[in-house]
Amino acid sequence: MGQATKVLQLFKTLHRTRQRVFKNDTRALEAARIKINEEFKSNKSETSPKKIEELIKMGSDVELLLRTSVIQAIHTDHNTLRLVPRRELLIENVPYCDAPTQKQ
């Protein structure tokens, strides 16, 4: 797969992940959209294959972090937040389990 294809695929993947992770949060959706677009635009003229691979790796790491670590929280009243975890983040909660499994 060529680098241009990898870059475009990463761009699309980041935007899809952004839409899932920040679903129903217009402010976060817009901020993430702007940040993704700015980062890709600022590196648009990069020609070094090594640097491009490093940027692709960093973008992939960011996508993984967003997908696996971000949980939405909603203010329900003055001192209370309600967490809204996505289904793919729910894992079996077994004490001292070295290999957790996803809930069905």
From TrEMBL:
| Compartment list | Mitochondrion matrix
Which GO BP terms sit in this record? mitochondrial respiratory chain complex III assembly
Keyword Chaperone: yes or no? yes
* Every Complex 1 LYR protein domain range: 6-60
Sorted UniProt keywords: Chaperone, Mitochondrion
What InterPro entries does this protein's entry cite? Answer: Complex1_LYR_dom, Complex1_LYR_LYRM7, MZM1/LYRM7
Q: Which GO terms describe its molecular function?
A: protein folding chaperone
Give the CDD domains listed for this entry. Answer: Complex1_LYR_LYRM7
Q: What is its main location?
A: mitochondrion
Q: Does the keyword Ion transport apply?
A: no
Q: What is one term from the GO cellular component aspect held by the record? A: mitochondrial matrix
Q: Summarize the subunit comment.
A: Interacts with UQCRFS1.
Q: Give the protein family.
A: Belongs to the complex I LYR family.
Briefly, what is this protein's role?
Assembly factor required for Rieske Fe-S protein UQCRFS1 incorporation into the cytochrome b-c1 (CIII) complex. Functions as a chaperone, binding to this subunit within the mitochondrial matrix and stabilizing it prior to its translocation and insertion into the late CIII dimeric intermediate within the mitochondrial inner membrane.
What's this protein's name? Answer: Complex III assembly factor LYRM7
Show the taxonomic lineage.
Eukaryota, Metazoa, Chordata, Craniata, Vertebrata
